[in-house]
Amino acid sequence: MEPRPRSFYVLATFFGLYVLFLYGPTITIGILSFQGPGGGLTFPMQGVSLNWFHELFETQAVGDIWGSFRRSFALGLMVMVTTIVVSVMGGLAFRKRFRGSAVLFYLVITALVIPSILISLGVGLVFTQAGVPIHWATSGFGAQLTWTLPFGLLVMFAVFNRFNPAYEEAARDQGASAWQVVRHVVLPIIAPSLMGVALFGFTLSYDEFARMLLTSGSYNTLPLEIYGMTTNVTTPVIFALGTLTTAFSFVVIAAFLVSVWVMNRRRARHGSDAGKAV
């Protein structure tokens, strides 16, 4: 076995430092959330306990934590479903060139480079001028779609760019209608990619702060509530909240990954069964 070049160890060290920089703050918050009852917001730790997690579930004046969590969760589901539907429809539409398709594509992508706070301000102004009350489920929902839809559309463009139309032609030769082709052929094939779009939609919505700053109205989502807590909470209870929300995010990601794994296993099993039948 040939010895590894010196550049390998340099790059490995650089990558290790990058990972530490990326996850170090999250790990620090996780450690400090287990402070003892007399602990503070910094090191050294004053004992180890679950006290601050217990305090988090007590009725106390630290903000509307669970109400904001429910709003973020509901909004994430709304954005996820909408992103999936619109992304699939857009991906199907862009399979064929049409007049203005290039302009429409760049208009969609432009939303990714416009500063988020300007998007929030613009959406808030539009709703105010239209006489529609600013609310997390209306203006906030619209503001978040300017963030999630471009990602979903880019994924679908990549998927349909390498999609083999022979499967659809075979289904149509068998007498399938246009809807049956989409339902029984296209959607099952792109299902793993749809899971990716769903994960994009939910996690980007759940974590969004800037676009919600001027569009959430009187009720905060969880990122806004946590930001508000940083100004009046001086105990590790805020770290406990951060640890729980991070754990929830990992649970959501793991659930999507398991779903994709199960889907691929089922597809492979059906493929082998079909091969044996032939």
Explain the overall architecture.
The chain has 278 residues and is mainly α. 70% of the residues lie in helices and 0% in strands. It has ten helices and no strands. It has helices at residues 6-32, 51-56, 65-93, 101-110, 116-129, 139-161, 166-173, 178-206, 222-229, 237-277. The longest helix is centred in the last third of the chain and has 41 residues, at 237-277. It starts with 5 loop residues before the first helix and ends with a helix.
Largest sheet: none
CATH class category label of the domain at 64-232: Mainly Alpha
**Uncertain stretches:** none
In total, the number of strands is: 0
Rg value: 24 Å
- Per the CATH scheme, the topology name of the domain at 64-232 is MetI-like fold
CATH architecture of the domain at 64-232: Orthogonal Bundle
What is the averaged pLDDT score?
Answer: 88
What is the CATH superfamily of the domain at 64-232? MetI-like
Question: How many distinct helices?
Answer: 10
Order of helices and strands: HHHHHHHHHH
Coarse morphology: globular
State the secondary-structure class.
mainly alpha
The N- and C-terminal alpha carbons lie at a distance of 46 Å
Transmembrane segments: 7-34, 73-94, 103-127, 147-164, 185-206, 237-262
Subcellular location: Cell membrane
Main location: membrane
InterPro entries: Bact_Polyamine_Transport, MetI-like, MetI-like_sf
